[in-house]
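Hello forum,

I keep getting stuck at the same step: I have a sequence, I want structure tokens, and every attempt I make locally crashes halfway through. Rather than fight my setup again tonight, could one of you with a working pipeline run this one for me? It's a single chain of 346 residues.
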Amino acid sequence: MSPTAVLKRFVVRGIGRVTTLAKETRKGIYYRVRETPQGRRLLQQAEFIRSPRDHQSRRDTAQSYVARAAAPVMESAKGFGLTSVEKFENFSAVVETARCLFEKKKALIDEELASFPTWDDITQQKYLKRKDRFLRNLLSDQDLERNPLLVDFALSDAVLGMATRYLGGVPYLCRVDLVYSLPRPTADNMASQLFHVDPEGLTQVKFFIHMYDVGDSEGPFTFIPADETERIIAEVRALRRRQGKPHSGRYLDEEIDAVGGASSIVRIEGPTGDGIAIDTSRCLHMGSRVRPGAFRLCLYLQYCTTAEQTNVFDVERYKSDPVRYLAVKHSVAPNANRVPASAQMA
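Reply #2:
Ran it on my machine without issues. Output:
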């Protein structure tokens, strides 16, 4: 490699590191501002200024929508609301569709895992360190095209109405997925298995709805209400400063316990259809501590007040409905010439 090429690679890597550091610094500042009510109001004003017409449209549409949508209510101060099967319409069809898709995906994952003992040590260690090996997002955009029932459910009054009422405007529907949690072969916890708050936006609503019964062995979704989260994060930060430890966005169980947070922990166990709608930007949460021989499958829905990474939805399907269209119109296919699912199935 020529000296010029070596210098160019060095410069590119240096710029990449600086860019990454700048992004991490901005994210850290954003997190700190977002942790207080005053900070959240400031960020909310900044979001409104960035796209005032869209935000006002979402607020205005939400007012009339939530007045007629008899949706369950999330408790604003605590940042969550519990769900149960009787609150949903056509839920048995949703479960049937989800389980059918799961069985097809699981067969491929089981085949992959069966070969694990034959891998070399380095490959095994890399595999074990990846979050997406024990917490699997199963659905593709094509799966959603072929199974519009799942998106219709995400846009139903009981679900979209609940998110809209809490967020104060018609949100962006960003994700519709099945999340499959598997046991890890090591005893340590990592990534989403540790308490954390999510990075997307100022506030959001995520649904985690059981597609099979969930008990302690299935590593249930576990969280701390928003009002207690605010106190706990502030006290853990102070504890780390006293101990001379750097701050990070993951919180150990012993840190939560050290500031008296253990009594505030809530675990979502229960039968198929039970679950939670929760603001994961405000509530500390973790999960997927699945024991050997068990698994957890949840229908996962995400609604944001800002346009985040999104599935590609069939926007035309909802164009005649002002509320639903507002929720999905941000979703744009990466390839306009993509063959429709109906043609693929023919």
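The CA atoms of residues 47 and 87 lie 32 Å apart. If your local run keeps crashing, start a new thread with the error log.
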